[in-house]
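User: Sequence in, structure out. Go.
Assistant: Echoing your sequence, followed by the structure tokens.
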Amino acid sequence: MIPSSPENQERFAPMFAALCREVGFCLHPKGEARVIAALDIGLDAATRAVFDADGADFAASTGDLRRAVRDCLKAHLPD
């Protein structure tokens, strides 16, 4: 499990900055922690966590938006 620590939030900061800049999902620290925790399950779970953390309706969103979020997370995952 990826712990939600200040070090991890710093490690994932570029990913969340890209998510905000490229897709428009600018999450608060608690939302970021939810996404980091969901990454243990996989990118699909993390994608859903982004929508949940933002209060957006995952089911009602377009496939293009869901794909854009997933692709952004994948492209900016820290090593």
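User: And one key feature?
Assistant: The chain has a mean pLDDT of 93.
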